[in-house]
Amino acid sequence: MRTQPIFYLRKMKIIKNSFLWVITAALSVAFSFELGLGESLGKIFIPLCVVSCFALAHKKLKIKYIEYLLFFSISITSLFGLTQTLTGSHAESNNILLFGLSFYTASIAYLIAIKSFNFSKIFDVSNPLLLFTGPIALFIKPIKHKKINNRIKYYFPFIIIGSFMFLVVGSPLTEFFYLINRTDVVSSILFAGIFEIFVYMNFCGLSLFIYGLFGVLGYRIPLNFKQPFSSSNIIEFWRGWHISLSQVLKVLFYKRLRAKFSLFITLVGVYVASAMWHGITLNFFIWGLFHAILFWLSLQLMKLGKGFLPLLMMPIIIVIGRLIFADSDTERLTQKLFFNFDGFDGAFSILTAPTNSHISLIFGLCLIFVEFAFRKTRVMHNRNYKHLRSPFVSCVLCILGIILISNVGVDYAVYGQR
Questions:
Q1: pLDDT digits over 303-342, tens only?
Q2: In sequence order, what are the residues at sequence separation of 6 or more whose Cβ sits closer than 8 angstroms to the Cβ of residue 272?
Q3: How far apart are CA 282 and CA 397, in angstroms?
Q4: DSSP H stretches of helix in 126-204
Q5: pLDDT surpasses 60 at 8
Q6: Prior bond of 135 cis (ω within 30°)
Q7: Alpha-carbon separation of residue 120 from 76, 78, 203, 251 (angstroms)
Q8: For 274-290, how does the pLDDT look when each residue is reduced to its tens digit (9 = 90+)?
Q9: How far is the C-alpha of 312 from the C-alpha of 177, rounded, in Å?
Q10: Disulfide check for 275: which of 179, 231, 284, 338 has CB 3.0–4.6 Å away?
């Protein structure tokens, strides 16, 4: 008799989750109007069917360690060329059957690991907007008890900030991507720095937009970025970058490895797992080892009271890490890592880029500088972009957006569509 109300509650939860899924599916079709209706519907319903099959299979079979097979499924498809590596310059698979694979498999793996995956999670995990750009669907919690006016007041500024970062700052920076083909040290470092700004503005911008949109609709999802550049070392930086993936890595790898191995071995395991999730190529393996070693080194220096050294190291780690991350061409990356100086032609070449791209680069640098320079002020304490959410700043961003938005550059989600 006690199972009947539990079944009723789960049924009601599935119905509520399906209502949000329908709304976001309609929005996904509207946002991807340039695609044919058939392709748009395929990218919406195929993940739903696949996730439903996973839920049914998990209920019946209960395969041990299935969460790791799910997490690395995107690594397997990358190894066989079915999906592309997630360097940030491309992400979409030509096979519509694999759309959203990296996100929903990571989400299912996480939920299985914490023993929370069931049929009521199907619509959360396969939510079309989250599969397009993230975050990984760790949770979707209703907040409709909050008045609509209060939700709009709090969450709508996130939509403004996200739109500004993605459209006004991020997209025009793609005009500088030709620099990836240059292997001299000046061009390589310049590209890595610009590309880091682009990835942040693109991925964070879309994440904040989706966060705000879900909030206005009456649902709370993970805040995928928390001002990563408001950091004093690389440890703090990673705590604010792609937080949903960090949580998955923490549950699946860090906690379990740390129970058996040293901190250094654990960090290597975590970063190599993260690297494999992004793609099976040499650059990601190097990237994983690079960050694991320097994460561990920063920790040791902080324990010795040398906090200023991790602060000085952080921008170098971020830029060199992005240089390695962005280039899956092994021969070209090898040449870059020799850091050969060949003049300043690469630096001068960016002057030929469109004016909008220069303006976007200035805005990107300013946004990051403000995050870092004022990181210890009260308004930055919670690292939730409060400094950009005031009515005055929101109005300024809207006006600048209207003035500066253009067709310069390419719009795409660096971490979505895969």
A1: 999 989 999 999 999 999 999 999 999 999 999 999 999 9
A2: 285, 288, 289, 292
A3: 40
A4: 128-133, 148-163, 185-199
A5: no
A6: yes
A7: 28, 30, 28, 21
A8: 999 999 999 999 999 99
A9: 27
A10: 284
